[in-house]
């Protein structure tokens, strides 16, 4: 019987494990893929207090090692179901099941797709969802980024130092990301902004060769690019918990700033909950709060 099982080993989940272990609670972290979450693909973190210019990989690795050194047990198993039983809770994975007094769901989110024909077919053949992972393959080539948030702006900024030309395509007439990132892009000579437009078609035989852009006014044009980097948001990974936890219409877990869900003893932390700001610093904050609330729940019982 564990005191706390944490589902997800991103910044929120690993922060929860640190707080749980400092309170001497028997803690298990379950992760489907790799520790670190989406931050592991960030080339440079510039907005986390006291850690300017640290890479996402280094940040995540330090966090992972800190949790391990404190005694957190970490297993790489995909969680398929959680159950709220009388007197305890159960977490089911692809490899087994574990009993626990409390659960913290910190599964984060996955890349949202464009939802256009051939997107899956050309993924890895010109279509990418991670500029820092795949950008080096497009050195000296023409590429495009689609999206209007911080991730899209950061991807475009990174690619301006790699690619020949970067087209930044957004469906609105202004970006949702930070003004500092927009200004940095405007100072680049090889960036081209395309507003009020969507990518509607992918062209190429075995690899991406060009994209069709459809304007909100009905116009269409073709742009020759070797790579398309998709940064149009993320989808919360909560579907496996829908039968137990209340989700909103977008699939995010409904919780206030205390990270409590509708089920006593089950908490949520990170980008997969309803919130206004989804940043590294707020993920860490959620992790600390969720663990503290779980510890209170255990001690009060």
Note down, in words, how this protein is organized.
This protein is of the alpha/beta class and 301 residues long. It has two domains: 2-111 and 234-299, FAD/NAD(P)-binding domain (3-Layer(bba) Sandwich), CATH 3.50.50.60; 127-230, FAD/NAD(P)-binding domain. The protein has seven helices and 17 strands. The strands form four sheets. Strands 1, 2, 3, 4, 5, 6 and 17 form a seven-stranded mixed beta sheet that branches. It has a five-stranded parallel beta sheet with strand order 8-15-9-10-11. Strand 4 and strand 5 (88-93) form a beta hairpin. The longest helix is centred in the C-terminal third of the chain and has 21 residues, at 280-300. The protein starts with a strand and ends with a helix. The model has no long low-confidence stretch (mean pLDDT 95).
List keywords for this structure.
FAD/NAD(P)-binding domain, 17 strands, 301 residues, seven-stranded mixed β-sheet, alpha/beta, five-stranded parallel β-sheet, 27% strand
Summarize it:
This protein has 301 residues and is α/β, with parallel strands linked by helices. It has helices at 11-22, 56-69, 119-122, 131-134, 150-160, 179-186, 280-300; strands at 2-7, 27-30, 73-75, 79-85, 88-93, 97-105, 109-111, 127-128, 142-146, 165-169, 191-194, 197-203, 210-215, 220-224, 227-230, 234-236, 266-268.
């Amino acid at each position: 019987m564990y005191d706390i099982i944490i589902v997800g080993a991103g910044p929120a989940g690993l922060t929860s494990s640190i707080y749980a272990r400092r309170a001497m609670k028997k803690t298990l972290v379950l992760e489907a893929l790799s520790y670190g979450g989406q931050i592991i693909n960030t080339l440079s973190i510039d907005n986390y207090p006291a850690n300017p210019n640290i890479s996402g990989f280094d940040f995540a690795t330090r966090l992972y090692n800190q949790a391990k050194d404190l005694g957190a047990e970490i297993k790489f198993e995909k969680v398929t179901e959680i159950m709220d039983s009388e007197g305890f809770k159960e977490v089911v994975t692809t490899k087994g099941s574990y009993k626990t007094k409390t659960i913290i769901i910190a599964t984060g989110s996955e890349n949202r797709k464009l939802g256009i024909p051939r997107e899956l077919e050309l993924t890895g053949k010109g279509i990418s969802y991670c500029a820092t992972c795949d950008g080096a393959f497009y050195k000296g080539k023409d590429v495009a980024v689609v999206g209007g948030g911080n991730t899209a702006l950061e991807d475009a900024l990174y690619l301006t130092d790699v690619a020949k030309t970067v087209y930044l395509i957004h469906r609105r007439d202004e970006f949702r990301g930070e003004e500092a990132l927009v200004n940095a892009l405007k100072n680049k000579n090889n960036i081209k902004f395309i507003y009020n437009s969507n990518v509607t078609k992918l062209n190429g035989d075995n690899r991406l060769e060009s994209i069709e852009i459809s304007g909100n006014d009905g116009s269409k044009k073709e742009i020759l690019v070797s790579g398309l980097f998709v940064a149009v948001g993320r989808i919360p990974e909560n579907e496996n918990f829908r039968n137990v936890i209340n989700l909103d219409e977008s699939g995010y877990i409904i919780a206030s700033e205390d990270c409590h869900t509708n089920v006593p003893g089950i908490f949520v932390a990170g980008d997969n909950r309803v919130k206004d700001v989804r940043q590294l610093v707020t993920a860490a904050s959620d992790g600390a709060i969720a663990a503290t609330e779980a510890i209170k729940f255990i001690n009060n019982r």
